[in-house]
User: Fold Luciferase-like monooxygenase from Alteromonas profundi.
Amino acid sequence: MKIPFSVLDLAPISEGESIARALDNSKQLAIQAEQCGYRRVWLAEHHGMKGVASSATAVVLTHIANATTHIRVGSGGIMLPNHAPLVIAEQFGTLATLFPQRIDLGLGRAPGTDMATAKALRRNLNNDVDNYPDDILTLQHYLGTPEQRQSIVAVPGANTHVPLWLLGSSLYSAQLAARLGLPYSFASHFAPDALFDAIHVYRSMFSASAQCEKPYTMVGVMAVVADTEEQAKYLFTSVQQQFIAMRRGGNQPFAKPVDDINAICSPTDKAMLDNILRYAVVGTKETVAQKLAQFIETTEADELIVSTPIHDIKARLKSIKLLSEIDLMANKDSYTVE
Assistant:
């Protein structure tokens, strides 16, 4: 059995580096992912975060798609309640026109920021979130074939049929993806608690649609692969620091790794990290292969989307390459990157 791997990139603004460098790093990562055979590369919408450069997601996707030739490029995701569906249809219709058969549109309903910034984005928080299911259908309508005398038409957008994905970390998102017959991506790389319940709900409730005849599940993991266990654990301390800072209300660039995470990590912090990052795979190719094989076997995922939270771009690119080289064995099944 073979399972495709994809890449989730947050365009991290590393400590000591510029936003311009972060965006160039994302371009390099996408080129590397394409060369290594990954299926798609996605970027996520976040706002007001000093460690993330992908707030204008559609613009960054143009940058990424223009630097590559065939890898699929998309959002993981666009936070739809932040936007009018017509605007997103026009943006992604433009992308699909510039880069035919390569664009994915992953959607979420979280603000992707703090509530003050969310208010600046949305104007009306409660109403926008409540309209999320209808907004998805409206967006899908704009991207489809226009009806006769349709009063509002997305130009570009109409007739592009950009494939939609629903993203989430809860049973709500699983139920909605199942009801709408859309592929589903679960954010177990940072919100693992409902992973297995959500997958079960999605698969058991799924209704076929024009886009999807059967359920299709993508599952997120963090992966840090290096030549030695010690080097991988060292590189992984950057994302551990990020979660500690977020828990304490901090907003900072993506931190440089540290020699001893325990020196800056309280017992409460450690318990939080162990829970949130429980599915992270960190180590050599051999170690990561064993962990990923078990994860794939237990989730029965159709696809994995991998984030590589590494401060140094050279180490990040190497991790992506090493991950693409491993064969994942689970019982009698063989999993390889394609």
